[in-house]
Amino acid sequence: MTRSSSMALALLVLAASALSLLPASLAVTSPYVRPATRPTLPLLQDDDDDGQTPQQVHISIVGPDKMRVTWITDDDAPAIVEYGTTPGQYPLSATGSTTTYSYLLYHSGKIHDAVIGPLQPSTTYYYRCSSNPSREFSFRTPPATLPFKFVIVGDFGQTGWTASTLKHIAAADYDALLLPGDLSYADLIQTRWDSFGRLVQPLASARPWMVTEGNHEIEKIPVVQPEPFRAYNARWRMPYDAGATPSGDNLYYSFDVAGGAVHVLMLGSYTDYAAGTAQYQWLRRDLAAVDRRKTAFVVALVHAPWYNSNRAHQGEGDAMRGAMEELLRGARVDAVFAGHVHAYERFARVYGGKEDPCGPVHVTIGDGGNREGLAEKYIDPQPSISAFREASFGHGRLEVVNATHALWTWHRNDDDQAVVADQVWITSLAANPACNKNKNNMRTVNIQN
Ligand SMILES: *[C@@H]1O[C@H](CO)[C@@H](O)[C@H](O)[C@H]1NC(C)=O
Ligand SMILES: [Fe+2]
Predict the structure, then answer these.
(1) Which of 227, 269, 403, 404 makes the best surface tag, with the fewest CB within 10 Å?
(2) In the annotation, is 313 catalytic?
(3) CA-closest residue to ligand 1 atom 14
(4) What is the pTM of this model?
(5) Residue span of the signal peptide, if any (predicted)?
C-alpha cells in the first residue's frame, strides 16, 4: 500500500468512526511502520535524598472526596501529609501509617500512606509529606460532575518508550489515570520498583493513578518467596476498603468518579475469579448496587484481554471471560480495557465471541513502552469483530463527555510525537432502550444467581 492510500485509509477509518459510532464490519490492520525499540532507562536515583526526603509520591482516589497519598522515605519519618490550597501553606493535615517489606535480600524504605480530605472538586491542592520542607507537591482533584477525562494505558515498564509515553500523557489535560497492570517490570529486582516510583512521580503525584495487577506484579518464587504481589500490595495500595461495595482485597476493587456518573471496575486477572470465589461474589454485589439510571457509564479493566487477535498471549483471558463476561453484559458494562498484549486493538461490542449491540467494547491498550517490546504478529485474516489493530506504543484517552457519549482516542507514539491513530464514540448502554427493555428493573437486569 502506498503512503497516500494508507493515509486515505486512516482518514476513512476516522470518518467512519465518527459517523457510525462503532464501525462494525470495518476490520483494519494498520500498515504503520514503527521506529526502533528503545533500551531500558538507567536505574533512576534520587540525588537530593537525605533519608527523610519523600520520594516516589503517588495519589489515588478514596471515595467521593478523599485522596490517598503514598510515599517512601529511606529512614524513619512521620506518616503525615500537610496540605492546603495555597502554595507553601498547609493548614490541614492527616496522619496515616507506615509499612515496609523484605524480598530476598532487599529491604524496602518506609512506605507511608495517609488519606486526606474532604477535598473540594476541581481544585489544586499543595502538599508536603513527612513535614519535609524540601519538596512541595500539588495535585488537582477530579471534577464532581461530567465531563471526566481518563488516560488509560498498561504495561509501562521503564524504557525510553515509557518516557516518551509519559511525556505525551503529561501533555494531556486529564483527571485520572487507569492502569490495567504491569507497572514496573521490576521482575524480582526490587530497586527497579523504586526506580519506577521515581520515574512516574511527576505525573502520579499530580493526578490519581488507579492501578490493577498484571502478571509482572506477582513476583512469586517457590519456597523462598511464596507470597505473591508482595511489592505491589505494599507500594500501590488501592481503595479496596472504600466505596459502595468494598472488596476487601487490593487485587480487585471499584470506585466512582464524576459524582457517580462513571463506575470503574478494577478486576484482578491473577487472583481467583471463577463462580463462587470472593472476587466473583464481590463483582456480583458490586454490579447489583450500581443504579444505571444514575450511572451513565460503567467501565472495567483487566490485565489479560478477553478478546485478542494478536498471536501473543492467545487465550490467556478466556477462563476469566468465561467466568465473568455474563455478569458484565448483564450490567450493561460499556467498555473493557485490557493490557498484557503489547499492542493496540479495538473490538466491536461483543459477547460470547460474537458481535452484540448490548455487550461492551473491548480494547487492548498494553502499549505503555516496556522492555519486552511490541507484539507484532497478528492472526490473519483479521476477525470481523476486531475493528482496528496496530502494534505500536501509545496511550488511550477516554473522555466521558455527558451521560450518553464518551470519546475514545488512541494516541500512538510516533517517534516523539503523539499522533491520533484511532478514535471512536462510545455511547452509554444505559441510554440505549434496545438494551434496557425493562427500565424499572434496570439495575438488576440479567444478573442471575
Ligand atoms: C452529548 O455529547 C454528544 C457528543 O458531543 C452530543 O452529540 C450530544 O448532543 C450531547 N448530549 C447532550 C444531552 O448534551
Ligand atoms: Fe502482562
Answers:
(1) 227
(2) yes
(3) 402
(4) 0.93
(5) 1-27
C-alpha cell at 348: 466491536
**Backbone φ and ψ of 60, nearest 5°:** -145, 150
* 181, three cell numbers: 497492570
Ion ligand 2: residues, CB < 5 A? 182, 214-215, 340
Query: Do 270 and 147 meet the contact criterion of CB atoms below 8 Å apart?
Result: no
CB 208 within 8 A of CB 67: yes
Cα separation, 128 vs 71, whole angstroms: 10
What lies within 8 Å, CB to CB, of 223 at 6+ separation is none
Alpha carbon distance 267, 250 (integer Å):
10
Q: How far is the CA of 369 from the centre of ligand 1 (A)?
A: 34
Q: How many Å from the N-terminal Cα to the C-terminal Cα in the chain?
A: 52
The residue whose grid cell reads 494478536 is: 310
CA distance 265 to 253: 6
CA distance 406 to 431: 12
- For the CA of 425, the closest atom of ligand 1 is 4
Q: Which residue has the cell 476513512?
A: 12
The three three-digit cell numbers of residue 53, written as one number: 526526603
CB 362 within 8 Å of CB 324: no
Q: Within 6 Å (CB) of ligand 1, which residues are found?
A: 401-402, 404-405
